[in-house]
Design a protein that fits this description.
globular; alpha/beta; about 45% helix; 11 strands; about 375 residues; two-stranded antiparallel sheet; 7-stranded mixed β-sheet
């Protein structure tokens, strides 16, 4: 299919997003076209994903006259940390990767975040390529240039904006995903529609409903994948670096809908209980509860949001977590600006509003957490 081209008006950079079945096995000539002077490609992945797709990808690259070497990280969000980042950077140096070469991430959001930050830091920046293999990464994490690692203080607190030169999305990779990874991705899909595009929400909700009684797993159509990619690309092209001065409904900050609570859940559980999208599923319902209790969102729309999250799949329980610990992590969330907490809430499904944390009382937050986290799918 014709690729999506994301152009950033503030500077001379563009990102090509290609979507197509079987695309991941035949990328060598695409990369050679984009990077005619490159000699080396460093693939960052993990054992599971590289075992499924890595050899075919590496063979395609070698056929296009690239020298290829892979580095495989341990699986899981808790390994996206400074120690692992240092190991990747040492690998890139040992591989003698130059400014004309590239880093390629093969995997989900964790791999993409780590590889992206390494590409941003090595020699002060080398080309970055993404081949996302999870639904979450395909529609969200790989698009927009956010890279980061976690620390004990919180999720994604150390990072940089480093735009990829290209993202290649092959929906066939989704057939290998375990159910929880699909649930995680669908939660992010619901988030994108709920926060910024009512038609996208309806299309996603309708697709999930149509698959709810099917014995097969909900693998999105190429057209639905394209719709989500175009939405995300449109947001980031107008607000590449998530400007704190912006609070309009087209700001990149609206994509943080559900993430304030989600990041707190992940941090409070040591990144061991939740996939990222699963935490976002809980976080959206909490943000929806806050929106309704503030009189912004109609209760009927909140119930529709709840239903959409339920259709994504079962979520790990969160009702047995210490609310005080979650609130403490929320208080130091990285989305604070000028010392103030900002929440992304909903006026309606498809339109977000950025709200000052001062408008949300401690009692309202506690009640919303109780109502929103009391779900196990």
């Amino acid at each position: 299919m014709k690729p999506i081209v994301v152009r950033f008006k503030a500077r001379e950079h563009q990102c090509e997003i290609g979507v197509g079945a079987g695309l991941a096995q035949n990328l060598g000539h695409h990369i050679r076209r984009l990077l005619p002077s490159a000699q080396r490609i460093a693939i960052i992945s993990n054992d599971t994903v590289f075992g499924l797709f890595g050899e075919n990808l590496a063979d395609s690259l070698r056929k296009s006259r690239f020298t290829v070497r892979e580095w495989l990280m341990r699986e899981g969000e808790r390994h996206k940390n400074l120690r692992t980042l240092e190991q990747v950077l040492l690998f890139l140096s040992a591989f003698e990767l130059t400014r004309t070469d590239a880093v390629l991430s093969l995997g989900g959001g964790v791999v993409g975040d780590l590889a992206g930050l390494a590409a941003a830091l090595h020699l002060r920046g080398v080309a970055l390529l993404h081949v996302p293999t999870t639904l979450l990464a395909q529609i969200d994490a790989s698009i927009g240039g956010k890279t980061a690692v976690n620390t004990g203080a919180g999720k994604n607190l150390i990072g940089a904006f480093h735009q990829p030169a290209a993202v290649w999305i092959d929906p066939l990779t989704l057939k290998t995903l375990p159910p929880r990874e699909l649930t995680s991705g669908w939660c992010e899909a619901v988030k994108q529609g709920a926060a910024g595009n009512s038609q996208l929400f309806r299309d996603t909700y309708g697709f999930l409903r149509s698959r709810s009684h099917s014995t097969g797993r909900a693998i999105p159509s190429i057209l639905l994948l394209m719709s989500h990619c175009k939405f995300k690309a449109g947001i980031v092209s107008r607000d590449e670096r998530e400007e704190t001065s912006r609070s309009d409904h087209k700001s990149r900050r609206i994509l943080n809908f559900g993430h304030t609570t989600a990041h707190a859940l992940e941090t409070a559980t040591g990144y061991r209980r939740f996939r990222h999208g699963e935490a976002v599923g809980h976080g959206m319902v909490v943000a929806g509860e806050i929106s309704a209790r503030l009189g912004l969102l109609q209760r009927s729309e909140l119930e529709l949001l709840r239903d959409a999250v339920d259709l994504c799949g079962p979520l790990p329980r969160a009702d047995n977590l210490d609310a005080a610990a979650i609130i403490e992590v929320i208080a130091r969330d990285k989305k604070r600006a000028s010392g103030e907490m900002k929440w992304v809430l909903l006026e309606r499904l498809g339109r977000a509003r950025i709200v000052d944390g001062k408008e949300i009382s401690a009692s309202l937050l506690r009640a919303s957490l109780k109502a929103g986290l009391g779900r196990t799918g």
